[in-house]
């Protein structure tokens, strides 16, 4: 019987080791919450808001549905969410700073759709949300889908063609003449363009404008108006059209004018990272007091890539194949030399992190290859679109 004593002690020691808690700082196992869970929907909303706020060019993206979500509870506090979001672009330019829920999605014939991968840290108790990384790949709907639903609808065309710049200039002349602005504006860039035959060739353009140094009180004939410096100039977003007939020309224009796009203050950045339910709380607390991670949250890193139009059947999930693989959890921009203009004039936006600096913060894993294990994912579509619906599959392929 005596020989049983050391055996029992050995078994007890093994059990004690097996039951020991994981080492401090070790990453928790990834969970698969439901795609229709309230916390997941809020995480998707916050991620998309911060993606749109981080971009300087292009159009605000709207949530089509939550495709997949994995959750990583943090040892100290909060959770990191790994999201795959199906998105469509809207009629709002990112310079408008509007929330995606307040923007109208585009009509079927000009829809651009795709997916965004996002990693976001959220701490509801401390009123903190921080987008760590994101990467979005978008694609215009293949023309043959548009023709099957609306054969007479204008298809989006390259905005760099001279006829569209000319249409923008003609539309802007009407705005400069009729608006109550104190200065004239000039065309900054054409962002979307299409053409359709109506009673003659009709050109439809969306473009950015910038305030110039020429006052509307002065005569500007044969005078070149220099744009005001970007830190003081107002920027506008316009939608215009020029319809030509044999006897007459019809020009339309509507513009939104935005205040100078100065850098965000620290207070504005903090407010943007706050969860909506508690944005009015903890206003007196500093960031370091609100959350032990907040001083060490790295700058958001991400990009948006828009593929050229294609006649191929492109599903939401085949778009994922065009996103470069990465093993360190950081997005890898599309291979290009310098900024590459996209389909709507947007350029890839890449902020390289400082990989040499050691910081303490939330444990961020590489984006998980395994999708959500919940049978509620992908979630329900926020809208039913006759063109987009055939392009999505019921269950996604493996990342």
UniProtKB/TrEMBL annotation:
Subcellular locations according to the entry: Secreted
Biological processes annotated in GO: binding of sperm to zona pellucida; regulation of macromolecule metabolic process
Record-linked Pfam families: Cystatin
Ranges of compositional bias, category Polar residues: 272-287
Region annotation (Disordered) ranges: 261-295, 322-353
Signal peptide region: 1-19
UniProt-listed Gene3D superfamilies: 3.10.450.10
Name by which UniProt lists this protein: Fetuin-B
Lineage: Eukaryota, Metazoa, Chordata, Craniata, Vertebrata
């Amino acid at each position: 019987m005596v020989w049983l004593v050391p055996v029992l002690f050995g078994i007890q020691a093994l059990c004690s080791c097996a039951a020991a808690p994981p080492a401090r700082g070790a990453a928790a196992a990834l969970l698969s919450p439901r795609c229709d869970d309230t916390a997941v929907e809020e995480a998707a909303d916050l991620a998309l808001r911060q993606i749109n706020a981080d971009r300087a060019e292009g159009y605000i993206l709207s949530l089509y549905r939550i495709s997949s979500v994995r959750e990583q509870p943090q040892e100290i506090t909060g959770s990191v969410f790994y999201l795959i979001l199906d998105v469509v672009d809207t009629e709002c330019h990112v310079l408008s700073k509007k929330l995606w829920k307040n923007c109208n999605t585009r009509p079927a014939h000009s829809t651009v759709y795709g997916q965004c991968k996002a990693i976001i840290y959220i701490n509801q108790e401390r009123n903190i949300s921080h987008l760590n990384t994101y990467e979005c790949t978008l694609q215009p709907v293949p023309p043959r889908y548009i023709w099957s639903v609306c054969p007479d609808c204008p298809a989006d065309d390259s905005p760099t063609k001279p006829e569209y710049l000319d249409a923008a200039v003609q539309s802007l002349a009407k705005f400069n003449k009729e608006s109550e602005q104190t200065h004239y504006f000039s065309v900054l860039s054409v962002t979307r363009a299409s053409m359709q035959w109506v009673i003659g060739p009709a050109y439809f353009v969306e473009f950015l404008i910038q305030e110039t140094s020429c006052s509307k009180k002065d005569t500007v004939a044969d005078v070149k108006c220099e744009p005001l410096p970007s830190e003081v100039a107002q920027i506008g977003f316009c939608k215009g059209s020029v319809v030509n007939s044999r006897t007459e020309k019809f020009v339309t224009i509507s513009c939104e004018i935005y205040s100078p796009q100065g850098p965000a203050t620290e207070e504005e950045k903090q407010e943007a990272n706050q969860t909506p339910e508690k944005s009015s709380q903890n206003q007196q607390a500093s960031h370091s007091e609100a959350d032990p991670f907040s001083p060490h949250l790295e700058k958001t890193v991400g990009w948006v890539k828009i593929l050229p139009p294609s006649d191929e059947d492109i599903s939401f999930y085949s778009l994922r194949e065009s996103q470069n693989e990465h093993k360190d959890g950081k997005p890898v921009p599309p291979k290009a030399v310098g900024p590459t203009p996209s389909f709507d004039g947007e350029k890839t936006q890449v902020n390289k992190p400082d990989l040499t600096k050691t910081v303490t913060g939330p444990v961020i894993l590489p984006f998980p290859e395994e999708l959500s294990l919940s049978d509620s994912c992908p979630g329900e579509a926020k809208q039913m679109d006759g063109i987009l619906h055939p392009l999505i599959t019921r269950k996604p392929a493996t990342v």
